Amino acid sequence: MNSTDKPILEVRDLKVEFDTYGGTVQAVRGVHFALAKGKTLAIVGESGCGKSVTVQSLMGLIPSPPGRITSGSVRLNGREILGLSPKEANQVRGKQIGMIFQDPMTSLNPTMTLGRQITETIRVHDGVSDAEARKRAIELLEQVQIPEARTRVDQYPFQFSGGMRQRVMIAMSIACNPEILIADEPTTALDVTIQAQILDLLKTIQRDRRMSMILITHDLGVVARMADDVAVMYAGQIVEYGGVQQIFHRSAHPYTVGLRSAMPQNDEAQSKMLKPIEGSPPDLFDPPKGCAYFDRCPHAMKVCAARNPPLWDVQEDHLSRCWIHHKFATSSTEVFRSNRMGQEWEIQK
Amino acid sequence: MLKYILTRLLSGILTVYFIATVTFAAMHLVPGDPITGNKATSPEIRANLERKYGLDRPVLVQYGIYLKNMVNGDFGISFTQQNRSVNDIIRSHFPISATLGIASILFATFGGIFFGALTGISRKKIYDRSIMFGVILAISVPSFVFAAVSQFFMTELNQKAGTTLLPVGGWGGLSHMILPAIVLGLGTLAFLTRLMRSSLLEVVNQDYIRTARAKGLSPTRIFFSHQLRNAVLPVITVLGPAIAAITTGGFVVESVFAIPGLGRYFVQAVQQLDYTVIMGLTVFYGAFLVFMVITVDIAYGLIDPRIKVSARSA
Amino acid sequence: MLKSTTAHSETNSRFQKTMEVDPLIQDLTLQDFFQASREVSKQKISRPSLSYWKDAWLRLQRNRQAITSLGIIAGLTVFTLAGPLAWRLDPAFQDLTRISEPPTFAKSVLVLGEPEPFQELVSSEVPATPQLDAAATLKAPGLLQITGNPTTQSVRLQWSPSEGASGYVVYRSEEGPPGEDYLGVPIAEIEGGNRLSYEDRFNLEARRYHYAVTAKNGAESAGFSAIETTLAPAIRVADARKLTPDAEPGTRMTLPAHPLGTDYLGRDLLARLMEGARVSLFIGFVAPLLAMMIGILIGGVSGFAGGKVDHWLMRMTDFVLALPFLLFMILFKVAFGAGAGESGISAMLLAMVILSWTGSARLVRGQVLQLRDSEFVQASRLLGASWVYLLLRHLLPNTMGVILVSLTFAIPSAIFTEAFLSFIGMGVAPPTPSWGSMCNDGIQTFLTHPHEFLFPALFISMAVLAFNLLGDGLRDALDPKMRSVQ
What we know:
The structure holds three protein chains of three kinds.
Chain A: E1 9-20, E2 23-35, E3 40-44, H1 51-58, E4 67-76, E5 79-80, H2 86-92, E6 97-100, H3 114-126, H4 130-143, H5 149-152, H6 162-173, E7 180-184, H7 192-209, E8 212-217, H8 220-226, E9 229-234, E10 237-243, H9 244-249, H10 254-261, H11 302-306, E11 312-315, E12 318-320, H12 334-339, E13 343-344
Parallel strand pairs in A: 3-8, 3-9, 6-7, 7-8
Antiparallel strand pairs in A: 1-2, 1-4, 4-5, 9-10, 10-12, 11-12, 11-13
Helix pairs in contact in A: 3-4, 3-6, 4-6, 6-7
Chain B: H1 2-29, H2 43-53, H3 59-71, H4 86-121, H5 125-140, H6 143-161, H7 174-204, H8 207-214, H9 219-237, H10 239-256, H11 262-271, H12 275-303, H13 305-313
Helix pairs in contact in B: 1-3, 1-12, 4-5, 4-7, 4-10, 5-7, 6-7, 6-10, 7-9, 7-10, 8-9, 10-11, 10-12, 12-13
Chain C: H1 12-21, H2 52-62, H3 64-81, H4 83-86, E1 107-112, E2 142-147, E3 155-160, E4 167-173, E5 185-191, E6 197-200, E7 208-217, E8 219-220, E9 225-230, E10 234-236, H5 237-243, E11 252-255, H6 269-305, H7 307-322, H8 325-336, H9 345-356, H10 358-372, H11 375-382, H12 387-423, H13 435-443, H14 451-478
Parallel strand pairs in C: 1-10
Antiparallel strand pairs in C: 1-11, 2-3, 3-6, 4-5, 4-7, 7-8, 7-9
């Protein structure tokens, strides 16, 4: 994160809960981050860590009930967008923030032509004529490299392959030239070969339009390829936050280290055995008092069970939520010794 | 699409043939020969019947004659009603049944979609609860009960008002149709309401609805252009069986309301064991229903792009 | 609780410095940063595991509608099976003296001997057809009185003649005493000014009546004479002996209660409803059960065998499915007929089974196909499980749920079908009652005696409603997808 740029999107202390059959789930437990103009922020974490819920609550897409945003602030260009009236919120969605979802097979209306699904957005937000909107829809389809866009525009989703549909989703989400594009696991449901194409497309479009992007993924390979900044989420909180170089090469949090060792790396041909992270994330019906990673952490200390660690500024613009950065902590792990220089860092409320 | 329609029609014809055969076989199972039984008293009628059905010939020949008549659209003659032909009966009574049936199916379909949508989108539990209670009641109470009770209350109302607000029986203008059409359509309406509700609830949770919300569409727009259309599709697929339900339901409702429709006539024929009429009308009804189902299927194909396009390319 | 396992001594020097810099974490001590021992189990299972059926049962219990329905069904079963033991009236007994009675309690009545024939009082003092004096105003007959004991069998009226009358009109009113504007319903017109009595036997009930009589000669007299009487319930000895053979005239006897009234032949409606329940519920249970068994067999064979067998069995299913159900129920019912003295129950069962096995056959076939290709069955097969084992251990338990649910929905529709057919006179043959045929009987007199129609209709509706709600509940309880939803 570059502190000189004024962030386009600022999220502070976001908390989201869900009422379910078994009780209340605290899905997001105080998330802070900022998105700089023209940059890509990747939010990484395993399933159920709250990354999708985080971005869906930015968009006001949390179904309510059962969902509920209990606290927090989301500022888009300095303007608070949580708690907007439904009408105002609709002007933000699609117009200022575009969104792509994980499963392109189900995210498009099966009984409506693609053309109409795209023009619908354009007409609602920009109030242009039908013909004009259609022209723009065809241009958009060409931009996302759909061949024969002129005929394809009148076809239905089931006539497209998964990768093609995801291109259409992208075209739809950028139809009104949003400042921010949120991509929620855009390649998870696709074949590996298609994944690269879609990622390249996203990158090109982002560069051409100088868009900011939030990319949700559990794939560190995608992160390395796409991101400028990375936020690692675990059990509803950001546990490490920093530039992509720092996250990959100077990982400060034991969870990030664990993720990296669980990731296959093709440049290390002699590659070591992959090391899975033992155990599973805590039950968010009743989140632990201390660090959520305590049960799985190889460096767990007594304090970890008792208190949730604050975010430490381990380097410039590199935060980590771990007690290991405390001066008292004397880990046997050399990796952490170097980072353990810290000043405590908390975002001002 | 044409190929699809032709295939459906062909299978429909095959089904009608099967229905006719089962009907023929069933009628020949009747202990003793129904046609030569004591019902057909007049020698003139009997002679006519024997000529028509070849009763003195072997069963297979009779079957052939029967099929030939059916193919020519000749459904036979009554043997309790002075040689009246079944075609004649259909011509004079079916239009009445059809009018009533169309009124009912329109009432049931639009009512079902409306109430189903209401329960499906309403945030207030009380609407959902009360409509669903009404639905389960309408499904559980036989139509003849609704018919009798509505007649009873309408009679009382008419008496209170001192004039005939709505006639409780007979056939005439539009006013004669209202009460029986409602009673006849009620069960189907309930069934469709239920289907529409569950279909809408399923659609509401689909990913593409989330996409539509992410596009910044208003809830009204999302409802009309994304939810309603997708939710109505399954409702259309069951219109075939719904038409069947209303047609057979007409047997009872027409009898209770004294409407001179084909249904009432069929019930009378059944009660009088007028075998030839039963046979003819069964095949007629069977063919009618089969082709209604096909019509609905084809109409559905025209509405759902997934079928329309794949059928075109097939 | 934290427990230290290792001592760290080398960091002591930095200890004080940090305390000064970081006031927020002042209360932390070095001890806190000792390595934690984790005896805590790593994975906690948040809910105890339950077997499929137990879980389903628990969820069904939470569904108030379904449990109420289960109660109603249990109640109906008791009503049908144990009812006749408690309510011992003969459902076939026709009490022609009590036709279409609304619900009544038991009542005590007088047993009357054979009635003395009514001797009409004919006066010789007045002429039968007097010359009409136009000027003379017709006076009311005098002194209307009742002779003998007024009972529900007969009321005998007698009055004194009116001068100049050529006849009399007798009125009866169940409402208030007769006045100038309303005398009651005219029940008799008597021709002859000398005939001075009348016996009323028409539809008498044990209640208060007002009688009035006017004279007439061309026009009716303005005046009338009236009398009020309360009738004693009574029964003729011949009728009484049908109930209790040793009834004697002059004694009192208790007539049985009809808590739901009687029908058009004076049969007890409650007893007939119990008898009818047997027929309706028998068909309701047995027809779906048989159809389901055939369906399971055909669907199972079809799914297991696959190939040609599957193809032809499914073709057959399609054809049977294409027969319009109610239409062919009627046709088959006509074809199978009911010989003299038969109830027609078996004909109806047969027709219903022939036409309704298809649904479950398709259902079972689909389940079998789906399960046959499922990973756990393939794994089991790889491990060398025999097909009997597969059937018993995997396929049956996994299809039981859907089969049970579809059976629960098939019962109300069978009850419905029976009612429908019986209502149009194609059901069970009289005198065997079923709820549907009772409705058919009752609707003829619905406007005058609604109870004869409403009670059987209520039972049909209640039974169908209960099974439908139970089916809904079962489906929700057995569907694993519904677990997370409230």
